[in-house]
Amino acid sequence: MAGDTREVHQRDIGEPSNDDAQRVANEMRNQEPLLAMKLRTTHEDPEFMSTFFKASRLHFIGTWKARYQEILDSLPPPPALPPSHGCERLVFHIDMDCFFASVAVRGRPELANRPVAVCWGTSNNGSAEISSANYEARGFGIGAGMFIREARQRCPALVTVPYEFDKYSATAEDMYRTLFDFTPHVQGVSVDEAYADFTGMGEAGDLASKLRAAIKERTGGCCASIGSGPNRLIARLGTKRAKPDGHWHIAQAQAAACVAELPVSDLPVCHPPNDLHGLLYKSSWIVDLPAI
DNA sequence: ATCCTCCCCTAC
DNA sequence: TAAGGTAGGGGAGGAT
């Protein structure tokens, strides 16, 4: 079988096997106290509420702003945004690639080049929700929001690893401190995503490659993708095309043409189900919207 | 017209 | 077994 041949080949050249990767994932689970407890009621665990929030990825994401504020408080207050003098602004949208999964793979060579997904859940056919999947896993059609059961059907060799919230906080801080080294004009969006104004600081491609390299080094190997353009919306649309591990610039002059050929669903807030969802039936492409 | 409060919705 | 929280934008609708 082709798969067997590949395994033999990997062993020959000393690369970690799938077994090595699964063993590392098992060790991660074994060292996670939250998985050792397996306590589910207030009777079994008097600290049930606290345990629940400690294990919640949504709570982690939702309370990130408070931790970000501590970073802001440790820095001098940002100067006012300098005027652009009528020239177009250079706005960056920085977004870490599959953040939780890349933190998991970082420093664990056994997981490199393997399909990896982050979730609680130790059962192969459970309904634990995957919150981050690396690009190898996405190649099997695995993505955020999918239950572990379906992901395992699509890729039996998938490596599932538990959350490491403390590492996410520290890595996010590394990313933000790197960004603040470049400019004080930073707007934090979330734990793994920010906008920054680079107007008048140089050429977009050059700045982006320097910033991405600095983030990758400071975070120990986590990649950021960057979209850039004259405003936040255009920059953000550029990031979609930049991923993974890339940069895409959309200048003001190209912005209208670039955006026109995108599907309506690429716009923020235009994802069903919502109030604008009817538009998706009338038009799939942004270029057609003015005709509606 | 303007300013509120609530409430629904999105994104992360 | 799995860990669905949180902040902020914007519309509706009432009070001024």
TrEMBL record:
GO terms for molecular function: deoxycytidyl transferase activity; DNA-directed DNA polymerase activity. Residues 1-14 have a biased composition (Basic and acidic residues). Residues 1-21 are annotated as: Disordered. PROSITE patterns: UMUC. Pfam families: IMS. GO terms for biological process: DNA repair; error-free translesion synthesis; error-prone translesion synthesis. Residues 91-268 form the UmuC domain. GO terms for cellular component: nucleus. This is UmuC domain-containing protein. The lineage of its organism: Eukaryota, Viridiplantae, Chlorophyta, Pyramimonadophyceae, Pyramimonadales.
